[in-house]
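Risk mitigation, structural track. In case the binding assays with adenosine-5'-triphosphate fail to produce interpretable data, a predicted complex structure has been prepared as a fallback.
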Amino acid sequence: MHIVALHNLKGGVGKTAAAVNLAAQAAEAGIPTLLWDLDAQAAATWCLGAQARLAKPPRKLFRRKAPIGREAARTQWDYLDLLPADESLRHLDDLVAKGKDGGRLLHGLLQPFSENYALVVLDCPPSFSRLAEAVVRNADRVLCPLIPAPLSLNAWRQMAGHFDRKRYGRDKLRPFLSMVDRRRSLHRTWAETPPTTLRGCLSTWIPYATDVERMSVRRAPLAAFAPRSPAADAYRRLWTELAEDLDTRP
Ligand SMILES: Nc1ncnc2c1ncn2[C@@H]1O[C@H](COP(=O)(O)OP(=O)(O)OP(=O)(O)O)[C@@H](O)[C@H]1O
Ligand SMILES: [Mg+2]
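Fallback model:
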């Protein structure tokens, strides 16, 4: 089972849009996929059209007093299941921080899913938290969407530096450009040649597109309602690039 996380300490950069579309692309390729919404905002849960809420409180789930596997539910798309979020997750970080070893705690929660899924996609809240650290330690790849702007690079340096110092596997970080607006010269320049600071940067970039915004109205991945749009095509290519990366590197 591969574990892919969407993470960035910055908010509103396209983590959830990528988590939903990448999970949908993997499912469309016949890969049994679980999208785990770890964000109390529950945007991924919303975008998959789920009414679901967590049946048990996170306190019980994360202390393994109640089986987390039972929270995963089918979506209307084949091979795509969702472990939903709701506002009860807002104290998740405290829960992870209180545990002795957040990484090990999350590992224990993820392990049983390998019986049913070949891929787990984690949609993380925007933060630089203990939860984020636990996620990075467990993920095979950590995808970080970045909007082209100098300040995005500052956040990236901070994040990558932190994971370096903690030895959390800096090499799994995969930045990619998000919300690229080709009318803007900096966006065009970065899309053609990403800054060298973005080590491991994926070559696929996601265009700025109203179709992506429509996901929260249609409550579906792009492939379900705008499969031939440039944005859907970009997520398809992002998935292909990621799948190759997962297969070919340790
Ligand atoms: N490529 C895009 N083009 C246009 N709008 C986008 C694009 N990607 C995301 N958006 C919009 O930008 C907003 C933020 O996107 P999204 O929720 O995916 O970001 P996020 O990083 O998950 O945010 P948060 O940090 O709050 O979890 C949403 O309204 C979404 O519809
Ligand atoms: Mg989000």
